What does this fold into?
Amino acid sequence: MTCVCFRMYTEEEARKLGVVGWVKNTSQGTVTGQVQGPEDKVNAMKSWLTKVGSPSSRIDRTNFSNEKEISKLDFSGFSTRY
It folds into this structure.
């Protein structure tokens, strides 16, 4: 079995871009998460999630919801949840 490693690559990209939040696998075989940071960096992360992902991943579609401006970050880093 090949490792898709989407969460690991997502965490790495988030740290490179300087956004905070989390990512985790779902029982449906998809990935969910939350990203916070300056709008330009969040948009760069959304673009990466939509078009790039991990080398072994196949991205069929992305769905971004609950987008809003916040006054302060809820997270201090980016992590993988289990």
Notes: The first strand starts at residue 20 and ends at 25.
